[in-house]
Write a structure and sequence with these properties.
The chain is α/β, with parallel strands linked by helices. It is built from 21 helices and 27 strands.
Length: 594
């Protein structure tokens, strides 16, 4: 039997609330600490404890981060999904299953490893056997694929840091699992072989990276209402900010859990009006509720920060699955003519970086600014080599703090554009400078109420010019240009973690080389249009049904460019998988005769 090394997928089928997450993270961390490129995807239910959950671990020497196209090793613990999980496997797959689940192995074309996981766990602690059984299967996997036991022990210690009894109990469970596998099974065809570990690497969720970036960006007020999958951002801020933001023993921030998303948005606007750096974090349903306040912030020109961690809609949709379906709503949020700045991270490093840069943008452009992540990036752990920290003072934008500054402005008015960039000067409460004025109704350059058509037309033109001016300020796209290549692929967000595999699969299937352009912000940087112009065929990849970025590009780009643009949008709620997008790309190839 040929060995398959560092190139296989493990799928663990358990139930929510049984403690399996700790065991799965121990498995993931051990492989990472062995120096093996590995990714983990947590697929969990949206309602109550006891419902099915899956954890997908992919080892890939090529560094692929998307879920694999097939399962090589299946761990069966949950009777509720037993038949479906078993039926989905290809012949020859390896199955590690809990004989205490009272289910049967009904397939003869798989490699079966029956393990009395619960019985083994009961020898250690009868009351906690259901939870300890999870670490038993980790021990079995460790033995079968050759994981380093010292590294495994360190991962257990890290997972249960400071809880010595838990460390000892779970370490014993892992040992018993290894011993059972060694005594009863032949070696597995799948192997994890340690590589030289990159120093300084660590795992972090995108939500926690955003939280840390926000703290380094000077967040002063956080208002939020819990909603999956964004709650990890405020929860991480609550955890970290007391350790990082104290002055003379006193807090330099305020955190408020509001009664709903609407109230949270109003509080953030209040902070922006007062000159504080305020933010909220939510998901699509919360953004929907915040629309009126978003329009007020845009029209009254109040610096505000909103993070949207996208889940599957519409309505309640699939709250614990991932999608890129809020993009158009963020870019043109609220009623009337609006246009907003949107930061779109594709890695955890960028989650941190944009976590602090987004505040500078909000204050520079005096407008609501959105961070756009998704459940896959936000709630899963990703390998990270470090962060880009702020290297300059905060950009507070056009703020007047003294009478001398105000006197230097010719004919100051709160909404007067004195230098042509569309951005007026503002004053702050407590500065002693009048007027401290923000108006959400029609207004002239001085902030005086007005229904004059010419005044309104000029005001809306200035707001448009202001946001348009952000194009070159915002993060430029990441472009990989293949020499003499006629095909360009445009994508954004967490598809970054699938694009290398998409590229390799396309070349293998068609022999075609493609250039890629990862959009990192809206409004679109001019480099994106240049990329489109350089290629005869441009395909826009995104994880939604309707091709929302494709629609934005078609609306904004000249007619001569849009004729060779094509959408390859696909979404089923799962993290972006290479084959799903390659299939869509091949449909475009067939359509245009490539």
């Amino acid at each position: 039997m040929d060995q398959i090394v560092n190139d296989f997928t493990i799928n663990i089928a358990t139930a929510n609330g049984t403690g399996s997450q700790s065991a799965n993270l121990i498995l993931l961390q051990t492989l990472f600490d062995m120096g093996i490129p590995v990714s983990g995807k947590n697929l969990f239910p949206s309602n109550i404890s006891g419902l099915p959950t899956w954890y997908i671990v992919r080892l890939s020497d090529a560094g692929y981060q998307a879920p694999g196209e097939r399962t090589h090793i299946q761990v069966l613990v949950n009777p509720a999904t037993w038949d479906d999980d078993l039926a989905s496997l290809e012949p020859g797959s390896t199955v590690i299953w809990n004989t205490d689940s009272k289910m049967e192995m009904t397939r003869e074309d798989v490699i079966s490893y029956p393990v009395p996981m619960t019985k083994i766990a009961r020898t250690l602690n009868p009351k906690l056997a259901r939870m300890i059984a999870n670490v038993v299967y980790v021990g079995v996997i460790a033995e079968l694929i050759g994981m380093d036991h010292v590294v495994l022990e360190n991962a257990i210690s890290g997972q249960f840091s400071g809880k010595q009894k838990a460390i000892e109990l779970n370490s014993q469970a892992a040992i018993l699992g290894r011993e059972y596998a060694a005594e009863n099974f032949d070696s597995c065809q799948y192997q994890s072989v340690a590589r030289e570990k990159v120093e300084g690497g660590f795992f972090i969720e995108g939500n926690e990276a955003v939280a840390l970036g926000s703290i380094f960006g000077g967040v002063q007020m956080l208002a939020w209402y819990p909603i999956t999958p964004s709650s990890g951002i405020p929860e991480a801020i609550i955890d970290w900010i007391p350790k990082l933001r104290q002055k003379e023993g006193k807090a330099t921030y305020a955190i408020i859990q509001a009664e709903d998303e609407l109230a949270a948005a109003g509080m953030v606007l209040g902070a922006g009006w007062a000159g504080a750096r305020g933010m909220t974090a939510t998901s699509g349903p919360g953004i929907s509720l915040m629309q009126e306040f978003i329009g007020l912030a845009y029209f009254a020109e109040i610096p505000t920060v909103f993070w949207d961690v996208n889940r599957v809609g519409p309505s309640t949709g699939l709250p614990t699955r991932t999608q890129q379906s809020d993009l158009a709503m963020l870019y043109e949020g609220s009623h009337g003519d609006t246009q907003h700045i949107v930061f779109i991270p594709g890695t955890v490093e960028e989650c941190f970086e944009y976590g602090w840069k987004i505040f500078d943008a909000a204050e520079r452009f005096q407008s609501p600014v959105f961070g756009f992540s998704d459940l896959d990036l936000g709630m899963n752990r990703w390998p990270c080599q470090g962060f880009e920290y702020p290297d300059q003072d905060m950009d507070r934008g056009k703020v007047l703090l003294t009478k001398e500054q105000m006197d230097a402005i010719d004919n100051y008015g709160r909404y007067r554009d004195v230098d042509g960039d569309g951005i007026p000067y503002r004053t702050l409460p407590g500065s002693g400078l009048d007027p401290i004025l923000y108006r959400g109704t029609g207004h002239d350059e001085d902030g005086t109420y007005s229904e004059n058509p010419d005044v309104y037309h000029k005001l809306m033109g200035r707001l448009k010019r202001k946001i348009e001016g952000a194009r070159t300020y915002l993060p430029a796209p990441v472009i990989r240009q293949e020499e003499d290549c006629d095909i360009g692929i445009v994508f954004y967000g967490s598809i970054e973690n699938t694009i290398a595999e998409i590229d390799d699969m396309l070349e293998l299937a068609t022999g075609q080389m493609v250039s890629t352009c990862r959009v990192r912000a809206l409004p679109l940087h001019s480099d994106v249009m240049d990329f489109v112009a350089r290629h005869k065929t441009v395909i826009v990849l995104e994880a939604n049904r309707d091709g929302q970025l494709f629609g934005i590009m078609r609306k904004e780009y000249p007619y001569k460019l849009i004729g060779h643009m094509h959408s390859a949008a696909f979404s089923d709620g799962m993290p972006p998988r290479a084959k799903s997008f390659v299939d869509k790309i091949l449909e475009v190839f067939e359509e245009v005769g490539l």
